[in-house]
From TrEMBL:
A GO biological-process term: thiamine metabolic process
The species this protein was found in: Liquidambar formosana
Domain Thiaminase-2/PQQC: 39-136, 158-245
Protein name: Thiaminase-2/PQQC domain-containing protein
PANTHER family given in the database record: BIFUNCTIONAL TH2 PROTEIN (PTHR43198), SI:CH1073-67J19.1-RELATED (PTHR43198:SF2)
InterPro entries registered for this protein in UniProt: Haem_Oase-like_multi-hlx (IPR016084), Thiaminase-2/PQQC (IPR004305), Thiamine_Salvage_TenA (IPR050967)
Length: 303
């Protein structure tokens, strides 16, 4: 498989001093790369994802977004700063707008997949994690009924944003990456509406706003409390991969991840065996030795 490294190299060049949200995004690069190259994401980006799988995803995502909006609501109640409350309220409204995109799919299909579908374990695990965090049920943190001071409540708001920020940044990232694969004015991509939504300026701004808010809420926290946020961030990223992997994908696909190789800008890493599986071992030397040994003598006599 040929892997473009332009996007990841840009991410790695970000200054770590910009805030914990960006530092965590860089630190857990392996997770978001896995999400980007998950079979579901690759098929969606290529446009050959079967509609049945996409409908199942939309149904699961509908329930996830409802939990996401509820988590924002709980975080808003915990925040003691008016500016933070307003920012969280705006973010919650953006989730409600996102749900309207799901409604538009329902209108196109003429059936409500969300009502017909059964929640899969990955969706339940993800939503339970979000709502538990937003309710203050975090290891090492007092329960919501025992939060004596506004500062303690604010910590729960920070923990909640730590669990929500990776999802926002991941979808904003995927939207931009998938948008880059589309030709200008291309309408043949069946999931263009999904890509346009997450690559839009509005969603990109919401993702950045979420990260900025996480940084703001974390300024006064101790190192131990920041460690808790890091664990929540990491857990959310892993749950997102599980969410993608849980979609019922029963198809084989080979997708060009870039349209044209620009040698001045792109660097490709080839790491595929003959059976098209990836390996962590560099077999170039072994293959070269085999080629030399098995080469006809007539070829070996050539300069």
């Amino acid at each position: 498989m040929a892997t473009p490294t332009t996007s990841t190299s840009k991410a790695s060049s970000i200054d770590n001093a910009e805030g914990i949200a960006r530092r965590f995004w860089i630190k857990f690069r392996k997770e978001w790369v896995c999400a980007m190259y998950s079979p579901f994401a690759v098929c969606l980006a290529s446009g050959n994802l079967r509609i049945e799988t996409f409908r199942h995803y939309i149904a699961q995502d509908f329930h996830f977004l409802k939990a996401f909006a509820q988590a924002y609501e709980l975080a808003e109640e915990c925040a003691d700063d008016d500016d933070a409350k307003l920012a969280i309220c705006e973010l919650r409204k953006s989730v409600l707008e996102e749900l309207k995109m799901h409604d538009s799919f329902v209108q196109e299909w003429g059936t409500d997949a969300a009502k017909e579908a059964t929640l899969n374990p990955a969706t339940i695990k993800y939503t339970d994690f979000l709502l538990a965090t937003a309710s203050g049920k975090v290891e090492g943190v007092k329960g919501p009924g025992k939060l004596a001071t506004p500062f303690e409540k604010t910590k729960v708001a920070a923990y909640t944003l730590g669990a929500m920020t990776p999802c926002m940044r991941l979808y904003a990232f995927l939207g931009k990456e998938f948008q880059a694969l589309l030709d200008a004015g291309e309408d043949s991509q069946p999931y263009k509406k999904w890509i346009d939504n997450y690559s839009s300026e509005g969603f990109q701004a919401s993702a950045l706003q979420t990260e900025d808010l996480l940084d703001k809420l974390s300024v006064s926290l101790t190192g131990e409390e920041l460690d808790i946020i890091e664990k929540l961030y990491h857990q959310a990223m892993k749950l997102e991969i599980e969410f993608f992997s849980a979609q019922p994908l029963v198809q084989h696909t080979v997708v060009p991840l870039i349209k044209e190789h620009n040698r001045a800008e792109d660097h490709l890493l080839i790491f595929s065996d003959f059976d098209l599986t990836c390996t962590v071992l560099d077999s170039s030397a072994i293959l070269a030795e085999i080629a030399i040994i098995t080469a006809p003598k007539s070829d070996q006599s050539q300069p």
